[in-house]
Amino acid sequence: CRQLFRSPSVPGSVPRAVLKRGRPSDGDSPAKAKQQRRVAGQEASVEPVVWLEPCRSAGLEEIEKLLASDDQELIGDFSKPHLLPTVEGKDPGLKYISPGTLAAVLTGHFSSFIDSSIVVDCRYPYEYEGGHVKGAVNLSLQRDVEEFLLEQPIVPLDASKRVIVILHCEFSVERGPKMCKFLRERDRSCHEYPQLHYPELYVLKGGYREFFFQFPSHCEPRDYRPMEHPAFKEELRKFRGQSR
Predict the structure, then answer these.
(1) 65 in a domain, yes or no?
(2) What is the structure's pLDDT at 35?
(3) Where is this protein localized, as stated in its record (predicted)?
(4) What pLDDT, on the 0 to 100 scale, is given for residue 36?
(5) In a designed cystine with 109, which of 30, 70, 104, 121 is the match (CB 3.0 to 4.6 A)?
(6) pLDDT class for 133, splitting at 50, 70, 90?
(7) Is 55 contained in some domain?
(8) Nearest-CA neighbor of 161 among 105, 111, 96, 107?
(9) Active-site residue (options: 1, 55, 122, 169)
């Protein structure tokens, strides 16, 4: 989709060195200045073209930059810019937020703009039970995501506000980003392009691990159970098999 809205690059503006000809510097001799004025007079017929071309090129470049910027900032249905500030993440096709931004959402800093915020914990159930973001829903399988989010989509009670979905796993490197892409693909298949149930999706950078270390008070229980915990080897094998 981004490719459809990405504009082709525009060549750089015309070099401006030629514009300085015919303008003597303070150190030029009178004879040299006279010679330069004569050369400038000979080139008078082409000078308007040289002056106009950079203006046209600069204008085109500015439009291209604006179009590219808008494409990067618009949500999935292209109706408005993203609400939450984003940070750079591993997958350039996804929008990542910091643990601090999630904490701000949880404490109501964006409540005047958000009707519902759904935090989707994509880790396995034993990880979730060992500690999770308060209010997060545990959806570790694709069928769980479809049932919870798409069979009966969550719609805002206030049409002027937004529904946002924030997904994560332990590190938000594999399971969370994959689930985010899956949700967008399934959502697209339910609509005529570019309409979506959930146009505003985010991935929590650093995952639950980073969030817990920075904001343990927003976690319940206040603990962190890693996926490869030695006491849950059998559970890990089972849930990995289900995920495949």
Answers:
(1) no
(2) 52
(3) Cytoplasm, Cytoskeleton, Microtubule organizing center, Centrosome; Cytoplasm, Cytoskeleton, Spindle pole
(4) 52
(5) 104
(6) very high
(7) no
(8) 111
(9) 169
C-alpha radius of gyration, the chain, whole number: 28
CATH of the domain at 133: 3.40.250.10
What's the rounded Cα separation, in Å, for the pair 125 and 100?
25
- Report residue 226 as tokens: 């890693």
Percentage above 70 pLDDT, the chain: 70
DSSP string, 94-108: S-EE-HHHHHHHHTT
Q: For residue 107, give both structure tokens.
A: 């404490």
**Domain-located, residue 164:** yes
Q: What is the pTM of this model?
A: 0.71
Total count of residues recorded for the chain: 244
3-state secondary structure of 77: coil
169 belongs to the catalytic site: yes
Residue 42 in any domain: the answer is no
Domain count, the chain: 1
